[in-house]
C-alpha cells in the first residue's frame, strides 16, 4: 500500500466531512480479505467523540468483514470516481477483490489499518465499530467512532470545504437514485437574521 498524501483533519471537524451527505465508499478488511462498497446512507451522530452511522446491509460482504474486524473506512469519492462508485455498488467483493478488479490503490489507515482510497477521493474517515446488536440486526445501521480523518487540502482545509470551479473532479457526489449523482457545488454562507 502507498503512503498517505492527505492532510490530517482534526477529529472535532470530522462531522463536517459527511454533514452534507456525500455518497461514500465503505472500505473493510479482515483475515487477508479486503473490500469496498458504495453507501449513500451515512451521517454524523455526535461531535465529540466524533461518531457516525452508516447503513450496511446484512447481505453484503462488507458487513461480514466489518462485523469480524470491528472497523471500517469511509472514503469520499470525487466526481471523477462516479463510475467507479456506482460499479463497486453493483457487484460483491465475495466474487473477487474489487481493489484489484478496478485498479484501486489503497493506503493503510493509521489507527486501525483499514484500506483507504485517496486517489480521486476528497477525504477519508477511519472508524471503529460501536457494536449495537439491535440497530445492526433490525435496521442494518452500524454506529462507529471516528478515530482518524484526513482530506485532500485542495478541497478541505482548516476544517472547511473549498468547493470552487477548479476542483470539480474532487467534489463529493450525492446519489439521486439509479446511478444519477449531483456534485456538491454552489456553497452559500448563511447569515443569522
Ligand atoms: C450509489 C449507491 C449507493 C448505495 N448505498 C448503499 C447504502 O447506503 N447501504 C447499503 O447497504 N448498500 C448500499 N448500496 C449497495 C451496495 O453498495 C452493494 O450491495 C454492494 O454490491 C455491496 O458490496 P459487497 O458485497 O462487496 O460489500 C449502494 C449502491 C450504490 C450504487
UniProtKB/TrEMBL annotation:
Cofactor dependency: FMN
Tree of life domain: Bacteria
Keyword Cell wall biogenesis/degradation in annotation: no
Entry-linked SMART domains: Flavin_Reduct
Record-level Gene Ontology MF annotations: FMN binding; oxidoreductase activity, acting on the CH-NH group of donors, NAD or NADP as acceptor
This protein's record includes keyword Flavoprotein: yes
Keywords (A to Z) from UniProt: Flavoprotein
Domain Flavin reductase like: 16-158
Record-stated family: Belongs to the flavoredoxin family.
PANTHER family reported in the protein's UniProt record: FLAVOREDOXIN, FLAVOREDOXIN-RELATED-RELATED
Protein name listed in UniProt: Flavin reductase like domain-containing protein
Species, as recorded: Hydrogenophaga intermedia
Amino acid at each position: 500500500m502507498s503512503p498517505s498524501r492527505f492532510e490530517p483533519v482534526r477529529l472535532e471537524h470530522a462531522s463536517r466531512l459527511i454533514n452534507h451527505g456525500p455518497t461514500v465508499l465503505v472500505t473493510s478488511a479482515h483475515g487477508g480479505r479486503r473490500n469496498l462498497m458504495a453507501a449513500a446512507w451515512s451521517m454524523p451522530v455526535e461531535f465529540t467523540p466524533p461518531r457516525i452511522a452508516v447503513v450496511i446491509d446484512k447481505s453484503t460482504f462488507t458487513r461480514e468483514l466489518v462485523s469480524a474486524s470491528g472497523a471500517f473506512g469511509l472514503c469520499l469519492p470525487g466526481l471523477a470516481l462516479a463510475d467507479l462508485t456506482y460499479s463497486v455498488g453493483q457487484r460483491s467483493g465475495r466474487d473477487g477483490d474489487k481493489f484489484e478488479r478496478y485498479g484501486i490503490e489503497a493506503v493503510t489507515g493509521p489507527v486501525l489499518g483499514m484500506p483507504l482510497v485517496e486517489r480521486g477521493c476528497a477525504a477519508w474517515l477511519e472508524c471503529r465499530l460501536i457494536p449495537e446488536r439491535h440497530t445492526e440486526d433490525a435496521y442494518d445501521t452500524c454506529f462507529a467512532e471516528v478515530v482518524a480523518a484526513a482530506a485532500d487540502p485542495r478541497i478541505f482545509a482548516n476544517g472547511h470545504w473549498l468547493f470552487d470551479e477548479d476542483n470539480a473532479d474532487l467534489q463529493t457526489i450525492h446519489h439521486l437514485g439509479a446511478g444519477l449523482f449531483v456534485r456538491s457545488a454552489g456553497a452559500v454562507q448563511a447569515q443569522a437574521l
